[in-house]
Amino acid sequence: MDISYLITIFNKENEIQETIYSIKNQQKIDSLNIEIVCIDDLSDDNSIHILENLQKKDPRIKVIKNDKNLGPSRSLNLAAKHAKGKYLIPIDGDDFLPVDATRYLLDNAKKYNSELVFGMSKRLFTIPETVTYVSVEDFHDRPLEFVLKNPIVRMGYLVSKNLWMLAGGADEKVFIQDMSLPLRLAANAKSLVYLNSVIYYLRKTSDTNLSNNTDQQHHDRYITYLNFLNSYEKELSKFKLDSYVHSKMISSIWKIKRDNYKFPIFSNNFVLYVANKVFKYKLNKKQIIKWLKFFENIENIRRIN
Questions:
Q1: Residue 111 domain-assigned (yes or no)
Q2: Handedness of CA 202, 7, 102, 105 (dihedral sign)
Q3: Which residues form the domain of 238?
């Protein structure tokens, strides 16, 4: 098997068919063996029935139904576990790939002999048919440094299954995979290619988008980077990259206050944020624990059970 597309679905009855069609319509890959691994995360709409009907018409589509709602991170890792492809391309259940995206990703992976290829994404009402070229691609032999300085929070990238398994996939202690997966992949990769072209398109926002909850974003960012700091402390210190992790954690502390209070600049959160920006201030262990408890007690957050 050459390529496995990984899709997690929760209540996407109005979008999932278009997403799968965007994969089936990929061009210049007729000689490749592909599969579309779909994980339905216990949807309570018609998603599973749509998936099963699509599967009957196309044996390349594999449908797995979770017995309980696991969340995107664990579901995506489950899809990767079942995948048989040499390369994996994760896609959200309501997004799109241009018709030449897969070919473009594969060609650049081969050109640079890299197991990890990222690209640009864009949210549009009208989706272009092909990749939107912006400028020449970039090769990076310090992939973790690149991802820390240029956060990747969208799907639609190409990664070898070997690298995914080595990295352990997404952090299953965080509900959403957006931030943890690119970080962990980059930390274990020897190199990466960044395509300065739009290879992935996001649908206009809807009520089913978890990203609509900004508190969820700030919570997940803090927990993701804290877990990453704990897991990769030696590597971060060795390459003097730990300051970028602290910046992301402090950014979460500031933004949760900014988005929920009328005068956020009159707060310790803002003082901490300015200290980090101006003096590269890092959180001490006591502060890390304090803010962890704070984020753990925020209401209306989806967490791993």
A1: yes
A2: positive
A3: 213-296
Q: What is the pLDDT of residue 119?
A: 97
Is pLDDT of 278 > 80? yes
**Structural domain includes residue 19:** yes
Same domain? For 36 and 156 the reply is yes
| CA–CA distance, 299 with 65 (Å, rounded to integer) | 28
DSSP SS3 for 180: helix
Are 290 and 226 in contact by the 8 Å Cβ rule? The answer is: no
Looking at the fold, whether 170 and 49 belong to one and the same domain comes out as: yes
Q: Enter the tokens of residue 263.
A: 């005068």
Q: Are residues 50 and 135 in the same domain?
A: yes
Question: Do 163 and 216 touch, CB atoms closer than 8 A?
Answer: no
Q: What pLDDT shows up at residue 151?
A: 84
Question: What CATH number does the domain containing 60 carry?
Answer: 3.90.550.10
Which residues have C-beta within 8 Å of that of residue 294, sequence separation ≥ 6? none
Domain boundary among 190, 206, 222: 206
Q: How far apart are CA 111 and CA 287, in angstroms?
A: 45
pLDDT at 37 over 80: yes
- How far apart, in whole angstroms, are the C-alpha atoms of residue 4 and residue 60? 10
From 180, 206, 232, the end of a domain falls on 206
CA distance 271 to 289: 18
Going by C-beta distance under 8 Å and a sequence separation of 6 or more, which residues neighbour residue 217? 211
Q: How many residues does the chain have?
A: 305
Q: What pTM does this model have?
A: 0.95
Angle between helices 214-231 and 180-188 (to 10 degrees): 20
